[in-house]
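Amino Acid Chain and Its Fold in Token Form
===========================================
What this section holds: a protein sequence and its matching fold, both as plain text.
Structure line: whole-number tokens from a learned vocabulary of local backbone shapes, matched to residues.
Purpose: to set a sequence beside its fold so the mapping can be learned.
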Amino acid sequence: MPEDLGESQSGPWPQFLAAPVVAPPEPWRRAGRPIAVGGLIGAGFGVHPGTGRDLLLAASHSGLGLFDTVTGERLARDYDNELAWPADDDLTCAGIGALAGTRVRMAGLLGGGLHRVAPGGWVVDVVTPDWPKSRVLLATGFGPWRGDHGETWWHVFHAGVTELRAAGFSPSGDTLIAATSSDVSMWTRAPATPR
């Protein structure tokens, strides 16, 4: 990166570049380890019909996987790669496992988007001060554009090697994901046991 940041790199950009990856503040916690999903096409959320807990549907060139967003446990797998490509204009995939018979809105390679705001004043932003590397920032209030790292915003994920495909909250706001072309990282604020 050039020493002279210039007009386009002033403002908060130096702060974003200098901020290390840190754990998010309470009530957020990591939901298991990052899930390896080679060739990720997209990710989307559904709701478990029995527990009301968020579920993550990950689509890849190898099919679909369904994951518990609190533990990271894989709950179902379908190796049919035809199912992994959204089949309609609203970018949905067929649900599997507990989501069978439903359509799940996806975000990723083909477009779409996840929620950027969650109840309680939480905001997620993706910044690229040294493109093509992406940083996922979790923030409160006005987002990362005001305040200091570790106080009002947290650099929770850095996609430096693989392409960031999607980042955002579940509709409930209890789950945050960062999905790259190779894996999905999840954070949760949901109770460890279903409500």
Summary: The mean pLDDT is 91. The CA atoms of residues 69 and 83 lie 21 Å apart. The two ends are 48 Å apart (CA to CA).
